[in-house]
Task: structure prediction
Amino acid sequence: MEKLTLTDVKHIDKNNDGQPLTTKDGRTYVRCLIQTKEHDGVLSGFGNNDTKNWQVGQTIEATVTQNGQYLNFKLQSKMVSRKDFDELNLRVSALEMWRLDEMAKPKDEVPF
Result:
């Protein structure tokens, strides 16, 4: 991952014929083209809810790769691995059990 300072941001959702951009399996997508202070030329990636709010001058973090003559960028995935999910699930379960135990304890009366 590297920090990139945006100098231009464009989103494209149609091809040159005016048709929606689609993947090989027919899903529509948005292409995000950016220019940065750190790289010459245009970097291409997929648009999403994060990229649609990007502004010139903003600093982002992305992985940049070269594919032939083209530069591509990829954002860090927000997906959680199964291992991390299982660990978090155990922690939440432990907290819930602790909370139930605390609620079951008798409370001291508060003097008024």
Observations:
- Residues 82-104 form the longest helix (23 residues).
